[in-house]
Amino acid sequence: MLRETVIKIEKLSRKYKGYISTEELLREGITNRQIGVFTQIEMLERICHGHYWFQCYRFPKPWDYKALEVSFSDPEAVICADSACYYLGLIDKEPVRLSVATRRSDRRRIQMNFPVSRHYYSERLFPEYQITLETGHGRYRVYDIERSVCDAVRFRAELEEDIFAYIIECYRKRNPSADQLLQCAKRLRLLNQVKRYI
Fold it and tell me: Is the C-alpha dihedral spanning 90, 92, 93, 95 positive or negative?
């Protein structure tokens, strides 16, 4: 590969400081063949279809890179349950698997470089309690704390026991009355299950 091309990708890595799409690479004059070569020699990491991370200067990935990268793969996906609790600061231990919610009708593939638990939601439940987090590298959607605690209860069997217990303990300390949580649980038809733990 020509040295000029390598210099060009290094300049682009400084310009974009992290993520870049195939569309942006092509617009910058990098060909599909060159993208393949740069991925092979590990100057680019393929995140998902159409998205890459520059590895030229070993920029550290953002702390919430998993949530960002899933949103590149499926912009409608929402971080849920224990993972949302982590990204919203309720708990400080990152779950091993990223919990993601999508509509039942969503057939986009979510194939990442890290483990993901995908949960399919009905059209009625999916849009409730979503918030969008903006970052310097992009945006992603999460469910709010109450919805995420409810989802942690819903998926309790799939979560690590210590993570689940920690979520409940932290939520109780932060919100002793738990009124909002119970209102959310009622709306999601999880009131009896949530009451067992709160």
Answer: positive
pLDDT tens digit sequence for 46-82: 999 999 998 876 678 999 999 999 999 999 999 999 9
Percentage above 70 pLDDT, the chain: 98
| 47 touches 70 (CB < 8 A) | no
Question: Exposure of 170 by Cβ count < 10 A (0-12 exposed, 13-18 middle, 19+ buried)?
Answer: middle
The SS3 of residue 55 is: coil
- All structural domains of the chain with their residue ranges: 3-54, 65-195
Q: Return d(Cα 117, Cα 126) in angstroms, integer.
A: 16
Largest CA distance in the chain: 65
Instruction: Check the CA dihedral 197-163-153-133 and report its sign.
Output: positive
| Neighbouring residues of 135: CB distance < 8 A, sequence distance ≥ 6 | 62, 64, 68
